[in-house]
Amino acid sequence: MKAAPSHNPERLLHTKLMPPRLPSAAIQRDDLLARLDAGLAKKVVLVSAPTGFGKTTLIRMWMANRDFSSAWVTLDEHDNDPVRFWTYVCSALRTIDPNLGKATLSMLTSPQPPSFESLLTPLLNELARLKEVSVLVLEDYHAIKSTEINTGISFLIQHLPESLHLVFITRSDPDLALGILRARNELLEINAADLRFDQVEAEAFLHATIKTVLPSSAVTSLLQKTEGWPAGLRLVTLAFQNKGGTVDVEKLIGSFSGSDRYVADYLINEVFESQPQDIQSFLLKTSFFRRLTGSFCDAVLETNHGTARLEQLDHDNLFIVQLERGGDQIWYRYNPLFAESLQYLARQQLDETDIKSLFEKASDWYEYHGLFDEAIETALTAKLFARAMTLIEKFIEIHDLSELRTLGRWLENIHQQEIFRHPILCFTYAQVILYSTDRFAPATAARIEPFLQAAESAWRTEQDHPRLGQLLSFRGNVTWWQGDVQKAFEYARQALDELPEQDVFWRGNSLLSVSYEALSAGRILEAQDKTLEARALLGAAQNIFGVLAATQFLAEIFFWQGELEQAEQLNRQIQTEAVGDESMLDDQGVASLNLAHIAYERNDLDQAEQLATQALNLSQQRANEMLQVQASIRLAYIHSTKDDESGARELLKSLEAKIQNPSLLREIQHAQALLSIRANDTSSLGWWVKIISAEDQNGLYLQKEREAFTLARLRIAGKQMNEAISALKQWSLDSLANGRVRSQVEALCLEALAYHADANLSETARALREALTIGQAKGFRRIFLDEGTRMAALLQTILPTLPDRRLSLFAATLLHSFSTDVTSHLTATSSTVQVEALSQQELRVLRLLVAGLSNADIARELVVSTNTIKTHVKSIYRKLSVSSRKEAREVARELKLV
Fold first, then answer.
1. Torsion-angle region of residue 351: left (phi > 0), alpha (psi -120 to 50) or beta?
2. What are phi and psi of 297, to 5 degrees?
3. Coil/strand/helix, residue 8
4. 449-468, pLDDT tens digit by residue?
């Protein structure tokens, strides 16, 4: 995959942006035009009726007779790809103002465009600057079935500026919140009943077209037969004209009856059969194609009079409409009703081989003119699969994966055995499947695998190392989302051996995986270097998803290094930027969970619980097992800290019953063991010791570290001090060498507890002072608080011996932060505490004070009186030995209190 291409207007079929010209015999419908004028006071105009009711003619008449700017898009079933749809909409709006839609079009060229909100927000801001009334017409909106597009249109309508109005021309009501628009009086509706001709309009129309005054009884009869259906009246006039005016009108009218479709079939036959043979042949052979121009018809029919034929049909008003002129060619289109009936006749009268030949030549013409989308669609319609696959490969070379749904739809029409012969298509289809379905589902991986095997086999045989490297890198993504991270790391390393230096996209992708391997192995400094390199490559490749993932890894790296502020800033950045398609909910969830970890470490339990719950909800929405397990474990720890042991255990128990992944099960089992130890329930943990000691368990390094620390706690509780201290020293040295500052502090805390239990007071004091020194500098709190009563006793003992105010205040604040259940077990001491800790409410006030809020602002934020805040501020000044806000800010920052 290459970097995303820039917007290329030449790939658009510009005829889709051309409104049809107004028919010369159009009847002025003043009442309906007046209603449309009134619709400019509303957001949306909906013109909904079956084919042949003059919907498009009415809107074109309105546009032709009014002085406002307008844009037009004619839609079809191929526009259900959101990228394609919004590309055409933005391109149409640029006909009103060329400055509109630039940012949105740029985002649409990304291989994985962001969400409709991100796409439409800059567009809406630009539209808001339009000063004159403007109208955007979406013709044939009934072709749009995409829920994603309808959601985007709903968002557009909701935030539509007053200057722009949307007009939908459709055969059926769209899947939009029409009821809400009606209730808010923001919708004008014109339907089939409104569009039917009455007696006066019918007489005027018939007189204008056949230049003969018909008896009122004949007009009345015709209205009854056609129920005022404009297309029916038009067909009658054509039948009359084609018979040279000799036909008995009343007899003609009496010879048909029934539904619109029946009337159409009958009358079209009347019109068609009255044409000369060469015109019939032209009509049949060109009826399959949506838009026609002279050179196109010449190429398809192998003639040189295509332009003349089209002009003749237009002159004869034979259900063909000239579009507004674009470039050096005049384009036309058949009335849909007429085209459908002609196609039915063509399939009866033409040989299937001849029809296929027409499509093949049409596809050639489209390709020659750079219209690959139309060339592919035409080839697929004719089941010219070999040609279609060649064209799709060219399309991929130019546009990458910018239109996932369109590529998927094309490839779904081709037999898999045919695709297996084309490795590029196999690799593309695998990516389309992964990025457009549930990437966590085993069924997704199973569906992808045959295509990857076929591509890999071909590229290994051809010794195509760059392509093979891309495929291996992609395999790493697939296995990653299946939860097999070790296999993902292996594929990433293999990919880097194959990929050339200039392939920044796939090298960045694999390097990102390798950086996470280093992170999971506890090599934080190495992980940081690799992640920064990966982020640079992914940025060069314009891979926003990869950049976000790299940012996420950096945030986690900063967390392990104890740089909590930087970690928080990066996670907030992710929350702001991860607003793309549904898969970005994974990024949102991980960022929320990482912020929960940070809030928990700072002992802000309510905030941590809110963020972890948010992460859990997102994980369930995305069926992301890894995130679900991690968020549930964090919530279980929070419940335990809030003295809800039963809630914590039940949460993990119910989670364990759902999870099948061995590595994730092991994480849950570790959390259960840790909660048991914290609750002093260590007698029945033999099962867990056996699990982590089993030789066949190959957990990630950081997972093993967590288990080693918990096992050390179990050994301390079991009076096995030597084993605990020996293991902890090894982990402490390793964490120091590899930059895992948080692990270093945790190991030192546990060492202090072990030495204290072994009555080695000098080593106890050394380890705890070292832990406090680092913990205070980095802002760690829960590392100490989670060790409960034993740590509280140690802090009380060491507090009088601490060498400076900074450590003394930090230790005292920690001691004050333990729950009353913990501190109630402490025995009184004769030692004099040199400092007084800040209460939790005083810490909240101090944070807001440091942020620059006034006393009144702080009072509003904490919902207390200003006098209460003044009392807290005085207490803070006394405890910190300061006399001003400036000094309080300096001390607070120095002591890492906020």
1. beta
2. -60, -40
3. coil
4. 999 999 999 999 999 999 99
